[in-house]
Amino acid sequence: MEFSSRTVRRSQAGLSTALACALTLLAACSSKSKAPRVYVLNGLDIPVSVTIEADGKTQTFEVAPKGQATPDVSGDGNVKVTSTKGELISEGPAVFGKSESKDCFYVYNVVGSAAYSNEDVVYGTGDGRPRKRLRAGSINEQECGIDYPFVEPPNTVTVKQAGPAGTNLGWLHYEGDGGWVVAVNALLDDTGESASLSRGKAQQIVRAVVTHDPQNPALPAIKARLEQLRLAMPEAKPGNLLDDGRRRRR
User: Fold this and answer.
1) CA-derived radius of gyration, the chain
2) What is the pTM of this model?
């Protein structure tokens, strides 16, 4: 028995996805027989160099502007992101799960710059209330219950004749072109109880652009948007953008 999806499809013509492995370097797409379980996303308009130290191993690779890499890493680790000029953008801990885990994917999003979502695709009558969780601004996420990670889900799926009349399947996908401008505007659109947190995340992304891509043509429009909301335009801040400056307890 087949059921057609009732979820409206969105174009994913922007960010490089798993359909375009050639845009990832070194660690990305290293094995055709092993499906990726870790995704490193870069929503910035500049390439970045990423070094991951995890499980006793160190990997360094480049992620293209609005690009994606799928390194073979696992365990708890540390991620350092620099510009191709060697300027530090961010550094901090990250979780990539166990290598044998098949139930979850792990996403590392450079300074939260990529606009992506975890969404339930509804087929037939569905199964419970579908959810959509915007991940713009999020740095490191464990995404479980995902059937289609950064690939387009099918229009129809086949279920057992005696089974339920529908189902929901998990889908990770980009919003718009998936870049930092989409991420910032989506965060600034938040008027709910998390609006203050979302605005802080938006300003962090903008600070990364101001610091490392100061001539970006989208900055004037973002500045105007911030001014409309009576928010300060972030200034350049060389160094670790994930370091909030608070004294850490030893």
Assistant:
1) 19
2) 0.84
